[in-house]
Fold this sequence. Notes:
By secondary structure, the protein is of the alpha/beta class. The protein has 2 domains: 1-30; 31-291, Rossmann fold, CATH 3.40.50. It is 42% helix and 16% strand. It has helices spanning 2-18, 44-51, 66-82, 99-106, 112-118, 125-128, 130-139, 150-159, 169-172, 187-195, 204-227, 249-256, and strands at residues 33-36, 56-61, 87-95, 142-147, 233-239, 262-270, 286-291. The chain has a 7-stranded mixed β-sheet, sandwiched between helices. Helix 3 (66-82) runs parallel beside helix 7 (130-139) and helix 8 (150-159) runs antiparallel to helix 11. It is globular, with a radius of gyration of 21 Å.
Amino acid sequence: MHTLLTLFCGLFALTTAAAGNPVLLAADRPAYRLFTAAGKPVEFGKMTKELATADVVLFGEQHNDPIAHWLELQVAKDLAQRKAGQLVLGLEMFERDVQPLVEQYNVGELADTAFEARSRPWPNYRTDYKPLLQLAQQQKLRVVGTNVPRRYASQVARGGLAALEALPAAEKAWLAPLPLRIDYELPGYKGMAQMFGGDAAHGAGVQYIIQAQALKDATMAYFIRQSRQPGQLLLHVNGSYHSDNHDGIVWYLRQAEPQLRIRTISTVTQEQLGKLDKENLQKADYVLVVPADMTKTY
């Protein structure tokens, strides 16, 4: 009797899974869960179906989280099918001055070794971002590096936006158009001020750090808009802090193009995956929850 009962339970689980219903057994250890902004569990396919209706999708990752990197690849694969010939891939991880190299690599004119030697890839490029570029080659997706060259962000962090005024026009072309408007009351920027123990309105050092962050946000938003045509969907991968709470990149996109249909994903860690913690509600349109003890890539 015990054997028959075990067999029945196993067959029931398989049948339920085959019908498209998620089966979560007590002994399972899920690697992630997906939730809506309101904290309702959502299936991957339902999420990507809705994402495919957007103009821009911002996938906010934790840079050392392997689950986020894997899911980015799965989202890109799914959207490449749903938006056949109309998907563009944007990456914070490549800066505007290396865009010609990104394009050469994307069409097969530049070998892996040459690309990695010259494009200043992040240390975790091979494991975490190269699969996205390989997918883009296979699917013939355009790839766009959107970030400000880091040397300019460093200059702003030390001396404020005034440090950019003397740049030649050719180098300013790698930045969002100047002068840059900054709303220091955005939640992300206010959080940075608190993080660095200062007041953005009065502390010059803190204000410069926020200006450097805003330069990155504005530059990524600018080249996202420049890189998509009507009818296209641009899937952009960036650190969560650049798009959480619908500010940062999102704010700059909306200032320039209020009608743009934007969807966001945020990656968070939690001790439990059963429900979305209160502090993670409304952080993004979709929230990817990863176990707090998940292995990190660095």
